[in-house]
Write a structure and sequence with these properties.
By secondary structure, the protein is of the alpha+beta class. The protein is built from 13 helices and 29 strands.
């Protein structure tokens, strides 16, 4: 029975082979494979853009890695004022309690390993031009000086910082000597969920390490800032990989490894990349002028939930609700008001707050921009002259706070900014279904009157009070909640 089955398979295979040869397809396929194999194995890496375009879907990744790996570098910086063993180690460059502070405490810039005790911190990067420009993460360089680049062949070069953008956690440096470096291309098209991805970096200072996985999700907001738009991958990424590239099977960079979700400090298969589209926008400006210019109108925004949409008469839960205005900002001058819902920019629909932020950021300062709004149920169009996002002033903080991460799994808005709600307090407009708040019985529409004994009027009040409780090692906070005509207390665990 087995022999008969094998004979049938062999006969079928011979028939297929005869048909392919007869039609000329076999010769074409063989020629394609031979040509691709020659291009991948016979080429020498030079100071030219390298890729693997035309490569068949791989059974393995060795040919691709062989071509792109020389473009990836290790980066190390000198840490000033390193403490002695047993004393407090290097502090995170991110705000205490923020997602990057929690997830990157052992990522990119080590805190307690041997590299810190030697006064050095490590990360990764990659060449984007033959004359020595290298992309990395801002947080790799943030607490250090005298950056050095170590190439794949072990050569070490000193480098200069060209510019950095904390908003997207990107930085650009340039090797001081040499003009013959292999470099890679940033992907033209965004990856699809399920595409292969190959991160290459400098984990634990080992250098030149490759992992493989797939694109798990796109458009991730991990709560770090208004420009969050991460690619999630499941390939292992570890300490020291920060700033390194993730490649597709064409040898193009689809993103820069920036963050990991890691309760234990090691890789658990959830990592986040800055998309190539963002890298292009930021790096070009850093190269041209050393900083990034973004459009800004001076608003604090709130997501439009189905409940809010229903309350103000919107057909769909889309757009961005204006919660607060910066004094004397472009939005104020243009006639934007609190409780307006911005639904379009230059006649193009706005999906949500992140969509609006990205569009405004990409708008050149000084541009006259038409905003479609809904005010008191009526559609209007107003014109706003977009300003420049302040880089050093305290102005612009509200716009930066647009996408603050939920606190306790709650999305909040000041009571005075929500239609149909009067008085003091902070309204719960959305609740993460997996959060402790959902398990505690809180509901959308509840008004938080106080956290502990401290009254609250803004989401920032709630956040600061919760963070204060966290610093005092409190395991839960007591929220005074108003629901309809009743008021009660609810204890919510701090995660």
């Amino acid at each position: 029975m087995i022999e008969k089955t094998l004979l049938q398979v062999d006969t079928l295979a011979n028939w297929v082979e005869r048909r392919l040869v007869t039609s000329g397809l076999m010769a074409s396929v063989v020629a394609t494979w031979l040509t691709a194999g020659y291009l991948l194995s016979g080429s020498q890496v030079t100071a030219a853009e390298v890729d693997a375009i035309g490569t068949p879907a791989p059974l393995g990744f060795a040919d691709i890695v062989e071509r792109v790996k020389p473009t990836v570098v290790g980066i190390r910086v000198k840490i000033e004022g390193v403490t002695q063993p047993g004393e407090e180690q290097q502090k995170s460059p991110f705000p205490p309690g923020s997602p990057f502070d929690r997830y990157l405490r052992q990522f990119g810039i080590p805190h307690s390993d041997s590299s810190v005790s030697k006064g050095m911190a490590m990360g990764s990067g990659f060449f984007i031009s033959g004359d020595g420009y290298v992309v990395t993460n801002n947080h790799v360089l943030a607490n250090g000086t005298n950056p050095e680049v170590m190439t794949d062949n072990g050569t070490i070069y000193s480098a200069d910082v060209i510019g950095a953008d904390p908003e997207t956690d990107l930085a650009l440096i340039k090797v001081s000597a040499g003009t013959n470096f292999p470099y890679v291309r940033l992907a033209r098209d965004p990856p699809r969920i399920g595409d292969w991805v190959l991160p290459i970096g400098n984990p634990f200072g080992l250098g030149g390490s490759v992992t493989a996985g797939i694109v798990s999700a796109r458009g991730r907001d991990i709560g770090e800032g208004p420009y969050d738009d991460f690619i999630q991958i499941d390939a292992p990424v570890n300490v020291g990989d920060s700033g390194g590239p993730s490649f597709n099977v064409k040898g193009e960079v689809i993103g820069v490894n920036t963050a990991i979700f890691s309760p234990s400090g090691g890789s658990v298969g959830v990592a986040f990349d800055i998309p190539a589209e963002t890298v292009k926008f930021v790096v070009q400006q850093l190269k041209d002028k050393g900083y990034v210019t973004r459009g800004w109108i001076g608003v604090e925004l709130q997501a439009v939930t189905p409940e809010i949409a229903d309350a103000i008469g919107l057909k769909n839960a889309e757009g961005a609700l204006v919660v607060q205005l910066e004094p004397d900002s472009p939005a104020v001058k243009g006639g934007v008001e609190v409780a307006d819902v911005i639904t379009s920019v230059n006649n193009e629909s706005v999906k949500d707050t992140r969509d609006l932020v990205k569009r405004l950021a990409a708008t050149p300062p000084g541009s006259s921009t038409k905003l479609g709004i809904v005010r008191n149920g009526q559609e209007k169009t107003i014109t706003v002259t977009v300003g420049q996002f302040p880089r050093t002033s305290t102005e612009g903080k509200a716009e930066k706070k647009m996408l603050q991460p939920p606190v306790l799994g709650l999305t909040l808005a000041p009571a005075k900014a929500v239609a149909g709600v009067a008085g003091r307090g902070v309204v719960i407009t959305d609740i993460s279904p997996t959060s402790p708040s959902a398990e505690s019985g809180l509901q959308v529409g509840d008004i938080i009157m106080s956290v502990g004994s401290l009254p609250v009027d803004t989401p920032a009040d709630v956040r600061s009070n919760v963070e204060e409780a966290r610093t005092r090692s409190k395991r839960a906070v007591l929220l005074r909640i108003k629901r309809g005509d009743s008021v009660n207390f609810v204890a919510v665990p701090i995660v």
